[in-house]
Amino acid sequence: MWWRTDSYWNSSATAFSSTMGTGLIMSTHNANSVADNNSASGATDLGKTFVFAFGDGSGIQLNHITFGTAPHSTNNTPGSGTNNLTSAETTYSLMSPNQVNEHYCMGSNLKLEGTTDTSALSSTITAYSDGYKGTIALDLEMILPGAAGGWRGVCMVYYSSQYVQDNTNGSMCFAAQQSAATGAGPIDFGAGYLMNVASATWQPPSKKASLTPSSSELTGGKYLIAYTPSAATARMYTSGFYASVTWYQPKYASSYSLVARYGKDDFIGAYCM
To answer: What's the pLDDT score for residue 98?
Structure first.
């Protein structure tokens, strides 16, 4: 049981907690109160409240769902890559170090595939790539990286041999970011970002680095980067939904100028971020 005394939520929260404190947004402002309802006047079809129990018995989650209540209907096919990169935690608790906000891992995998016919590719791509592609898929299970613009993802670091890390060309990283749009909720997907993080920015296995996905995004026609979803999508950060990115890799060479080529029998290190 609970008393609803306000409609506060913390825009930077990374754990389930009290709504008391600083940095809070009040959704009972006149304009925002209208947005809490499905009708233009705000007089009918009030938002719905749901309570979910965590499967591990560590507590409950209280959700106030406004506007659409139907589940998202696409982006529910898991990645088909056979190279597992990271695994999400299966249990959480209210005690450190097993709290929700202390874990960055989402389930992810890497798919490597060639292109049997490159004749349809542009000369920009074929001058750079022989059609060998990489696809990283992220499992968007429940996360709380902050309600506006928070993100989680995975990084791959190339190894020159089984035990020797070579970070000359930096790390390939894929992050899924929550929507920062006005009125967006903590389970709304904003965008995916493929990044090549330079070794000067992050030198693994260091546990910390500072970057922003949108300003670190890898761009260029030669990669033909394709994101799924390709646009902001509501109600995706929950079990059974996935985000992915595909890009063309460079032709095989003894060394690479920017992005390394990840291929069969290579060794890599995978990091949650």
So the answer is: 79
Q: What is the predicted pLDDT for the residue at 120?
A: 94
Residues 47 and 69: beta-carbon distance below 8 Å: no
Helix residue spans in the chain (DSSP H) = 30-35, 123-126, 213-216
First to last CA, the chain: 36
Average pLDDT along the chain: 81
Percent of the chain's residues with pLDDT above 90: 49
Q: What is the pLDDT of residues 35-79, one digit of tens each?
A: 544 445 545 445 556 677 777 777 777 766 555 556 678 999 999
User: Are 238 and 191 found together in one domain?
Assistant: yes
Residue of 89 and 247 predicted with greater confidence: 247
Residues 143 and 115 in one domain: yes
- Distance in angstroms (rounded) separating the CA atoms of residues 257 and 177: 28
Query: What own/partner pairs with CB < 8 Å and gap ≥ 24 does 82-91 have?
Result: 82/109, 82/111, 83/109, 83/110, 83/111, 83/112, 84/108, 84/109, 85/109, 85/110, 85/136, 85/154, 85/156, 85/270, 86/154, 86/270, 86/271, 86/272, 88/139, 88/141, 91/56, 91/58
Q: Which domain holds residue 171?
A: 83-272
Determine contact, residues 184/25, Cβ cutoff 8 Å.
Answer: no
Q: Which residues have CB under 8 Å from 226's CB, separation 6+?
A: 245, 246, 247
In 3-state terms, what secondary structure has residue 60?
A: strand
- Taking the C-alpha atoms of residue 87 and residue 90, their distance in angstroms, rounded to an integer, is 9
Strand partners, 8: 26
Beta bridge partners of 175: 153, 193
Residues 122 and 156 in one domain: yes
